[in-house]
Design brief:
The protein has seven helices and twelve strands. The chain is α+β, with helices and mostly antiparallel strands. The radius of gyration is 20 Å and the shape is globular. The relative contact order is 0.12.
Length: 237
């Protein structure tokens, strides 16, 4: 499952805890049992009919719970007092008709031996031109993620500390493209190469003694979770 997008149950639990309500407290406000709240927080399918009354109890729009879009916009506004335009930090506010805010997460993708995933949070937002997003056929901004690269295994394509944009919808592997990949709880940034014998995770760094190819065995495919394709680092990839 994508690390950037929470489930309905996770968002309800998060909002409930922000208010310091127990499951029983929320149940009273909605008119259901504590067990019913527990079920929807565990994403039990039959419990989804409670979304509207729960949204009313939280005094939020239903979309706040169902897709997180409003939540992302709110977190960006709450966490950012400056906006980045063209790589510079200053006090100007982007014209909402021309720019859209892409959420920046406190996530580092490893161009190396992998980085453990901790709790994923939005720290601020990075504006990008609406025209550019449309021209690249990318999804809505809340389905994109700004992260940081760490390590040198993808040099010269991606440098250590470089800002990246990940398309979290593009999770079907395409040969020669670069992806953010989760393996055993660790995040990697690697290029996927398809060969007649299967897939290879490849580093762009020509020093193959330090950065060898990693062959993905067919039985290991289920352990590889593609979080999205890296589509930008000061230009399209």
């Amino acid at each position: 499952m994508g690390i950037f997008m929470k489930t309905l149950g996770e968002r309800i639990k998060e909002e409930r805890k922000k208010r310091r309500w127990s499951q029983a407290d929320l149940g009273v406000k909605v008119g259901v049992s504590q067990a019913a709240i527990s079920e929807i927080e565990r994403d039990v399918p039959k419990s989804s009919g409670l979304v509207i009354p729960i949204a009313k109890a939280f005094k939020v729009d239903v979309s706040y719970l169902t897709d997180g879009k409003e939540n992302i916009s709110k977190q960006i506004a709450d966490n950012s007092d400056i906006i980045i335009i063209g790589g510079d930090r200053h006090g100007q506010v982007a014209d909402p008709k021309e720019y859209v805010m892409i959420p920046r997460y406190d996530v580092r993708g490893s161009c190396g031996e992998g980085i453990d995933i901790n709790e994923v949070n939005i720290v601020d937002g990075m504006p990008m031109p609406v025209a550019w997003i449309r021209a690249q056929n990318l999804p809505e901004a809340h389905l994109l993620a700004v992260i940081e690269a760490s390590g040198d295994s993808m040099q010269p394509t991606i440098e250590d500390g470089q800002t990246l944009i990940v398309n979290t919808v593009d999770t079907d592997p395409k040969s020669t493209k670069i992806y953010l990949i989760c393996i055993d709880g660790k995040l990697f940034i690697k290029r996927l190469i398809y060969t007649p014998t299967g897939w290879i995770m490849r580093s762009d760094n020509p020093n193959k003694s330090n950065h060898p190819d990693f062959v993905i065995e067919s039985e290991s495919l289920d352990n590889i979770d593609i979080q999205g394709r890296v589509v930008w680092q000061s230009g399209m990839l």
